[in-house]
From TrEMBL:
It holds the Pfam family MFS_1. Gene3D superfamilies: MFS general substrate transporter like domains. It is a multi-pass membrane protein. The chain crosses the membrane at residues 20-43, 49-70, 82-100, 106-129, 141-164, 170-190, 215-236, 248-270, 282-300, 306-325, 337-360, 366-384. Residues 214-394 form the Major facilitator superfamily (MFS) profile domain. InterPro entries: MFS (IPR011701), MFS_dom (IPR020846), MFS_trans_sf (IPR036259). PANTHER family: MAJOR FACILITATOR SUPERFAMILY (MFS) PROFILE DOMAIN-CONTAINING PROTEIN, PTHR23542. It is found in: Cell membrane. GO terms for molecular function: transmembrane transporter activity. GO terms for cellular component: plasma membrane. This is MFS transporter. The keyword Transmembrane helix applies.
């Protein structure tokens, strides 16, 4: 079959690709649910936005810190045992958060546990793509992956709203715990994860993939992008409460995820870049352009529309990051390198969520949206210097 959708259709025509992508999305749903689930849990129990932002930030920070450690273990062993063990621990963390006081030390321990044990399904899937699709379909696979994961941020908030309505304030974190375990079990039982082994190398460098200075510069850019995304859920929730009710936040976040889903699907139609560094600069600037209008706070309908616009460029940023990591990671460190990308994004998300909670309490939602746009501009400036030589791959 010819045409712009041919590469994507070729990927989806492979049964292992569909199974692995679907299972990984199910297992990653807690990531799309956590921010709103924690916000509604804290607010439902009388906590303020600063506390909600802090706990959301701690979850993202825990995931960011735990991911590379899990990735390093996977590079040196196998995927299924590590993924399954981590999923069970993360589920315990979410379940504990549901029953302890949200303003106490136990809540901090629980949310850090849930975050640090987040199974690195994103990284594991991206390591497996070359075993599932031909080399000339990798760009389409990465683009499809980035697009599909936005389903998490459309479906995740809606699942949280439904769970909270049915179960109460703790419903979101409890459902996240169960879905995470189910998804990991489905992924880890597939043949490709069970047969994959890390690349054997000579002496292991203690810095792992971080010995590559160009990779570190890419990670800084992705950290700043994560900050931008971290500001959105807090700013959107505060603005929702201002214009009509806290439950509207789920619709704003879902609209943002829908925009990213549309942008990701559209990006699968774009040919692979010869100069990925240049493309990363452009799409990071487009992300900033998408966030700036939110500061105008144009009412309910306008904010839903602008939330869609703000999400359009994120999949392109992430897809460029995936492809660059594959080229920049030293041999034998690919899984860990991918987890560092997720880590950088997660740390930025954590700082963005925590800082925007404070900004919202002091200055209102507009401050969160302006901070998000500013850090997206910085993300583009970080990669002004080319990371890799221009080539036909991408």
């Amino acid at each position: 079959m010819n045409g712009p959708l041919a590469p994507t259709i070729a990927v989806l025509s492979r049964r292992p690709a569909v199974r692995l992508l679907g299972a990984s999305l199910l297992g990653r749903l807690p990531t799309g649910m956590a921010a709103l689930a924690v916000l509604l849990l804290v607010r439902g129990r009388g906590g303020d936005y600063a506390l909600a932002g802090l706990l959301s930030g701690l979850y993202a920070a825990g995931s960011a810190l735990g991911g590379p450690l899990l990735g390093r273990v996977i590079d040196r062993s196998r995927q299924p045992p590590v993924l399954l063990g981590a999923a069970l621990v993360a589920g315990v963390g979410f379940a504990a958060l549901a029953v302890v006081p949200v303003d106490g030390a136990l809540a901090i321990v629980a949310i850090l546990l849930a975050g640090a044990a987040t199974p690195p399904l994103e990284s594991c899937l991206r390591v497996l793509w070359p075993r599932v699709v031909p080399a000339d379909r990798l760009h389409a696979a990465y683009s499809l992956d980035a697009a599909a994961q936005e389903i998490l941020f459309v479906l995740g908030p809606l699942l949280v709203l439904g769970a909270v309505r049915l179960i109460g304030p703790a419903g979101g974190v409890l459902v996240a715990a169960g879905l995470g375990v189910l998804g990991v079990a489905a992924f880890a039982s597939a043949p490709q994860p069970r047969t994959w082994r890390g690349e054997r190398t000579g002496a292991r460098h203690p810095a792992g993939p971080l010995r590559s200075g160009r990779l570190v510069r890419l990670l800084v850019s992705l950290l700043l992008t994560g900050f931008t995304i971290g500001t959105f859920s807090v700013g959107a929730t505060a603005y929702a409460e201002h214009v009509g009710g806290r439950s509207l936040a789920g619709w704003f976040i879902a609209a943002n995820g829908l925009g990213a889903l549309l942008g990701g699907v559209g990006y699968t139609l774009v040919p692979a870049a010869r100069d990925l560094s240049a493309r990363l600069r452009v799409v990071a600037l487009l992300l900033a352009v998408g966030y700036l209008p939110l500061a105008a706070q144009p009412g309910l309908a306008g904010t839903i529309g602008l939330s869609v616009l703000a999400g359009l460029s994120l999949p392109a940023v992430l897809t460029c990051g995936f492809a660059l990591v594959e080229r920049l990671a030293p041999a034998g460190t690919v899984t860990e390198a991918f987890t560092w990308l997720v880590t950088a994004f997660g740390i930025g998300n954590a700082v963005g969520a925590a800082l925007s909670g404070t900004l919202v309490d002091r200055y209102g939602p507009v401050a969160a949206f302006l901070a998000g746009a500013g850090t997206a501009i910085l993300a583009a400036l970080t990669v002004l210097r080319r990371l890799v030589p221009a080539s036909p791959r991408g």
